[in-house]
Each structure stands twice: as structure tokens, then as C-alpha cells.
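Table 4 source record.
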Amino acid sequence: MEAPQYVAARVQQALAEDERTCELGIRVDIRGDQLFLRGQVSGAEHRDRLGEVAHEVAPGLRLHNEIRIVDVTEPGEDEHLD
């Protein structure tokens, strides 16, 4: 069986290089037969695609997609301090 750090590195590389995801900011942790994805993205669809890519790269592991969705709205008015 492949060492966990190698599997994690392969998943991380796939998340960065796959045209569906192109994501550098996701942490990949492997514990036993569990694969955890952690980080933040701006939408549920993107989070789901990250999970799909990770599962394709490491199909033998149980995926826990713990990526949080953050609300990326337009910034409000500038705050003026007197």
C-alpha cells in the first residue's frame, strides 16, 4: 500500500492541475482509509468538483469533504475613519 503522504500529494497535485478544479488552497489529510479535504471555496458546485477529483485519484479511500463554502459578495462601501 502506498504511503499516505504520497497519496495526499497526488490528490493535492490533481486538485491544482485538473481543469475542473485548479485549486491550490485545499488541505488534503489522510488517516487510515479516510481522506479529508479541508479549506474554503466560493460555491457548492466547486466544492463538489473538488470531491469528485479527489475520489477519482484515490477511489479506495473514504472521502470526507469538509471544505467550507464562504460567501464572496461584493465589498460594501468603504469605511471612512475620521
